[in-house]
Amino acid sequence: MSDKPETNDKPELLNSIIGLIDQTRHFVAKTVNQELTLLYWKIGKSINEEILKNDRADYGKKLIKNLSEELSNRYGSGFNKRNLHSFIKLNTIIQDLTIVHNCKVSY
């Protein structure tokens, strides 16, 4: 016989701990998703303002190409040209920061 207690003797304790872990994991994932959405919106806003300030299509294309190369080298493929365009679109569609803060992101 082993001195190690079995969790089968305390299913309510095990279930309680499983519930805590699952609840915390869900909260962390939701918080990360909200913060990433806010980050992407801010990136889109920054790029949009820079492009509009210079008011030249060629400049915008080169800017996005250069930014995507630099950011992808530093942070990975999540900052490729396609995604940067998506960030700009997010900022264009939702122009009010308070709306972004109040977004409920689900997965």
How would you characterize this protein structure?
The structure is a single chain. The chain is mostly helical and about 110 residues long. It has a domain at about 30-100. About 75% of the residues lie in helices and about 0% in strands. It is built from 4 helices and no strands. It has helices at about 10-55, 55-75, 80-95, 95-100. Helix 1 (about 10-55) runs antiparallel to helix 2 and helix 1 packs across helix 3 (about 80-95). The longest helix has about 45 residues, at about 10-55. The radius of gyration is 22 Å and the shape is elongated. The model has no long low-confidence stretch (mean pLDDT about 90).
On the 0 to 100 scale, the average pLDDT is: 88
Described by the principal axes of the CA atoms, the overall outline is elongated
Note poorly predicted spans.
none
Cα-based radius of gyration, to the nearest Å: 22 Å
Beta fraction of the residues?
Answer: under 5%
Could you state the order of secondary-structure elements as H and E?
HHHH
Summarize the amount of helix as a percent range.
Answer: over 70%
Category from helices, strands and their pairing = mainly alpha
Count of helix runs: 4
Distance between the termini: 46 Å
| Biggest beta sheet summary | none
**SS elements, strand count:** 0
Write the layout of secondary structure elements.
Layout lengths: L10 H44 L2 H19 L5 H13 L3 H6 L5
Helix pairs in contact: 1-2, 1-3
Give the tags:
single chain; elongated; 107 residues; mainly alpha
